[in-house]
Amino acid sequence: MHNPIKPYRKCVVAVIYDPFRGYLVGERSDMARPAWQFPQGGMEENETPEESVLREIKEEIGMDSLKIIKTGNCWVSYDFPPHFGKHALAQKYQGQEQLWFLLEFTQKVALKDLKRDDEFRDFKWSSLTTIVENIVDFKKQSYKLGLKSLDLT
Question: What is the topology classification, in CATH, of domain 8-149?
Fold first, then answer.
């Protein structure tokens, strides 16, 4: 029996920039080895992408003192890898379709003040080259395209 192709989950990615420190990435709490990524998350029903990215940042890092600088010029998608088969999201979706946002803090924020929980265990500022080089393989192309959609590469 043939399974129909599952839909993509709509989500947003927050590229938070500080001109003196670089780009904010979080170390995922659910990975055995270090895995750093931009804050991201699914859109809720009846929510605009802009509302979604600000809500996700508040939930994931505990901050709401941000402003959107730029919205990506297209949606970027990736498929979940086969080893995600039992993961709840992979049961429902083929992958994720993301809209990327460039944001900056509207006040001075110290890394120690960011929320650590089941999403992220730590944070750091990094360069775009380092972030793309170290993102998990199945997200590498979407990171390149997402950053390009913001004219950052």
Answer: Nucleoside Triphosphate Pyrophosphohydrolase (3.90.79)
